[in-house]
Amino acid sequence: MKKKLLLSSALIAGAGLFAASEYFFKMAMTPFNKKADSKELSGKDPLYRDKVWFRDFSKKKWTLKTDSGITLFAQYLDQHAKKTAILLHGFMSDGDSMAGFAKMFYDFGYNVLVPDARAQGRSEGKYIGYGWVEKDDILRWIYQVIDQTGTNAKIVIMGQSMGGATAMMVSGMLLPPQVKAFIEDCGYSTVKGEINYQAQNLFHMKAFPRFPIVDLVSGINRVKNGFYLKDASAVAQLNKNTRPFLFIHGGKDHFVPTKMVWQNYAATAAPKQIRLAPLAGHALSYPMYPKQYRQQVERFLQKYVGQFL
After folding, report:
1. How far from chain centre, in Å, is Cα 239?
2. Residue 113's beta-bridge partner residues?
3. Which residue of 84, 155, 199, 282 is 20 to 30 Å from 214, comparing CA positions?
4. Could you tell me the sign of the dihedral formed by the alpha carbons of 147, 149, 151, 157, in that order?
5. Cβ neighbours, 10 Å, residue 151
6. To 5 degrees, how large is the angle CA 28–CA 30–CA 32?
7. pLDDT, tens digit, for every residue of 152-186?
8. pLDDT digits 0-9 by tens, 69-110
9. Strand 111-116 vs strand 71-77: parallel, antiparallel, or unpaired?
């Protein structure tokens, strides 16, 4: 009888853990039960004018199809330049959220491509890949930019938050020579590390049941989304990167902890710079320090990509 009770208890506990893991997989890896970022503009936003400019700018609509048949969407701001910035947005957002960055790069003389990541915005897809799946999508966008602007193209890839992690993951791929430099703002170092951190920080999970649940989520993600969480590492990709990289992070970031930028910075032996915005929270370095931010990006681009005009 005791053995039966123990077995029943173990089965009930296991079923509970699996159900919780399915729920957290939906929360983390799908658009399930999430609201997209508000697109209402506020005059109190330091980047308000830039965002109004982006909203009103006549943008071209680009699409591409992945090998699995998913249609991805992007907006292209064309000023017939050889230099193009590809801007990558954060979790559960879309390319419109990169409006302030788009205006900055356009002012610098760049064409700008702002894709919507798969399963977000106007792009199709069921699952969010936290940059690991999206890195292959960005490679396709890179070749589409080259087709549009020619083999003399110079491409800079910049991302924020999940987009920053995506940029780092792209940097370790076999890339065409037209890709010249990378910039990331508040990206995480590993997907498993970030999800572990969020389980603890947002849901106040103790070590148990956090570790079995995260491992179960990883297994579910492997079946449905194609990768284990531990495989999705910006650090591992940066180890293979050979192109100049600018790392930016808020000193008060409690969503992607500031310590992660130092892990990312240490991971690449390529030419690199780092900027900490001391009082900025997550994804707030640019609006809190717009002048200093633009100057840092401008100096980096001039050094590694060339004069703007």
Report:
1. 18
2. 76, 86
3. 282
4. negative
5. 9
6. 100
7. 999 999 999 999 999 999 999 999 999 999 999 99
8. 999 999 999 999 999 999 999 999 999 999 999 999 999 999
9. antiparallel
